[in-house]
C-alpha cells in the first residue's frame, strides 16, 4: 500500500468515526452497523458516503478496520461491560426487551457480526459471553434473580 493509500484509509476511517459511528450509541450497535456494511456473499464492505468522498478501496479498508476494532474491543471487554452494552442496545431499539432476548437466544444474530478472517477462538469467546449476557439480562424478565457469577466461575 502506498503512502497516499494509507493517508486515504486514515482519512476515510476518521470520516467514518466522526460522521457515522459517533452517532451510533454503544459498541454492540456499532458492531451490528459495521457488519451490515459487508456483503455477506463477497465479504466486501461498502458505504456510499465514504465511497463518494474517498476511493472505493480506501472506504472498504476503513470499514473493515473499524469493524475489526469494535469487534476486538467487545471480545476483550469485561463481562460486566458487555452486559451493559447489550442492555443499552436492547433499550435503544424501543422494542419489547423480552422479545429481543428471545430472538437473540433463538436466532443468534450476533454470529454474523464477526470480521472476516477472525480468530475462531475470539469469535467463540464473544459468542459465549453474549450468551451469558443474554441469560443474565433475561433473569429479571423471567422473575428469577440475576446471576452474580463471573464468566470464569460458570461451568
Explain the layout of strands and helices.
Elements: H1 3-19, H2 27-36, H3 48-53, H4 56-75, H5 79-92, H6 97-107, H7 120-142
Helix pairs in contact: 1-4, 2-4, 5-7, 6-7
How many whole angstroms does the radius of gyration measure? 17 Å
Strand content: under 5%
CA-based shape? elongated
Largest sheet: none
* Helix count, DSSP H or I runs of 4 or more residues: 7
Give the number of DSSP strands: 0
What is the H/E string? HHHHHHH
Q: Which class of secondary structure composition applies to the elements?
A: mainly alpha
Number of domains: 2
| Approximate helicity band | 55-70%
Unreliable stretches: 146-155
Instruction: Give the mean pLDDT.
Output: 89
Notes on the structure:
The chain has 155 residues and is an all-alpha fold. The protein has two domains: 3-68, no CATH class; 79-153. The protein has helices at residues 3-19, 27-36, 48-53, 56-75, 79-92, 97-107, 120-142. Helix 6 (97-107) runs antiparallel to helix 7 (120-142). The protein is elongated, with a radius of gyration of 17 Å. The termini are far apart.
Give the key terms.
single chain, 155 residues, mainly alpha, 2 domains, 7 helices, disordered C terminus
What's a concise summary of this model?
65% of the residues lie in helices and 0% in strands.
Amino acid at each position: 500500500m502506498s503512502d497516499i493509500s494509507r493517508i486515504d484509509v486514515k482519512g476515510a476511517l476518521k470520516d467514518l468515526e466522526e460522521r457515522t459511528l459517533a452517532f451510533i450509541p454503544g459498541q454492540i450497535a456499532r458492531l451490528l452497523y459495521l457488519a451490515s456494511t459487508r456483503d455477506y456473499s463477497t465479504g466486501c464492505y461498502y458505504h456510499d458516503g465514504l465511497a463518494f468522498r474517498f476511493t472505493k478501496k480506501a472506504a472498504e479498508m476503513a470499514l473493515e478496520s473499524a469493524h475489526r476494532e469494535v469487534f476486538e474491543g467487545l471480545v476483550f471487554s469485561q463481562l460486566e461491560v458487555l452486559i451493559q452494552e447489550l442492555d443499552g442496545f436492547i433499550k435503544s431499539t424501543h422494542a419489547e426487551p423480552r422479545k429481543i432476548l428471545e430472538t437473540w437466544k433463538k436466532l443468534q444474530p450476533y454470529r454474523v457480526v464477526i470480521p472476516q478472517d477472525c480468530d475462531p477462538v475470539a469469535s467463540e469467546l464473544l459468542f459465549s459471553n453474549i450468551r451469558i449476557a443474554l441469560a443474565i439480562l433475561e433473569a429479571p424478565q423471567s422473575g428469577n434473580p440475576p446471576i452474580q457469577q463471573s464468566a470464569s466461575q460458570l461451568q
